[in-house]
Amino acid sequence: MIELDGLTKRFGNKVAVDRLSCSVRPGMVTGFLGPNGAGKSTTMRMMLDLDNPTSGSVRIDGKHYRDLEEPLKYIGALLDAKSMHGGRSAYNNLLCLAQSNRIPKSRVAQVLDTVGLSAVARKKSKGFSLGMSQRLGIAAALLGDPQVLLFDEPVNGLDPEGIHWIRNLMKALAAEGRTIFVSSHLMSEMALTADHLIVIGQGRLLADTSMADFIHQNSRSYVRLRSPQQERLRDVLHEEGLIVVETGSGTLEIDGATTEALGELAARHQIVLHELSSQRASLEEAFMQMTADSVEYHAHSELGAAPPPAGPHWGDEWNRRTAAGTAGNGMPGVPGTSGTVKGA
């Protein structure tokens, strides 16, 4: 387990990490998310005593990193794939680490086989591609067979097969009861890998929750409907006090009602449905919604415009109605008046 207690790091007047307190528990993959400049790398460096905190502390299984007699047997880390000595072979890079940490020589061949580098074990690492360097860095992290593993952007440079491999590896390691802490900018991959999320922005803790709860709390779920009787369906929905969003693709999007309720409503009015599906925003959309105020650099040009909030195409009209409290008396839990909002 990794425990952070009031962890703070200042660089002059800049607060990189601000009183961060959380725990990374064993037996699961914990994703570490935040916009660029949020303090993720600084936090991971302080976990490994590569940077000293201004205040607060980090403990690994109850101990400070500096107090671990044989650190690689407690915690393994991949922070920089190109940190290996380029003039040494993959095998010799790992052998030096093994010998300096009293790890059996036989372990070197084992981890090289695990990461798929046995065939290039005797080649100098300076000639490795980014993906191969990532695999070598992962091998170094696994060398001491530690119970705690930190991975900073572990899929960077990997091909699809490699991404699938590291995903399965992290899940398998977590299933063995190890503590797995991983940062990544690939939200689609994190959604498939992580069980729990710690999200920071501007150095502060924004969320410490399960993947499912994070998406649920930071995005809007809605139901998508498509029917050859679209106008009649829309009128029926309006009569129920629901806000209907027309997407322009022949579908209607409804917030605040279940698929069961909408299906029964259509059946009562003998309306044929070609689509009735529950939709939820992705991890990426939920993340952008959560961290919108924590992004250091915003793009506003047409080519790099800031994205809309998560959920269906509600736009300014939805925000205006919600803020004004113009709630109708439609289906339970529907906070709006009836009417059609034209989406983008």
Automatic annotation (TrEMBL):
GO terms for molecular function: ATP binding; ATP hydrolysis activity. The keyword Lyase does not apply. Gene3D superfamilies: P-loop containing nucleotide triphosphate hydrolases. This is Multidrug ABC transporter ATP-binding protein. InterPro entries: AAA+_ATPase, ABC_transporter-like_ATP-bd, ABC_transporter-like_CS, P-loop_NTPase. PROSITE patterns: ABC_TRANSPORTER_1, ABC_TRANSPORTER_2. Belongs to the ABC transporter superfamily. The keyword Transport applies. Pfam families: ABC_tran. Coiled coil: none annotated. Keywords: ATP-binding, Nucleotide-binding, Transport. Residues 2-227 form the ABC transporter domain.
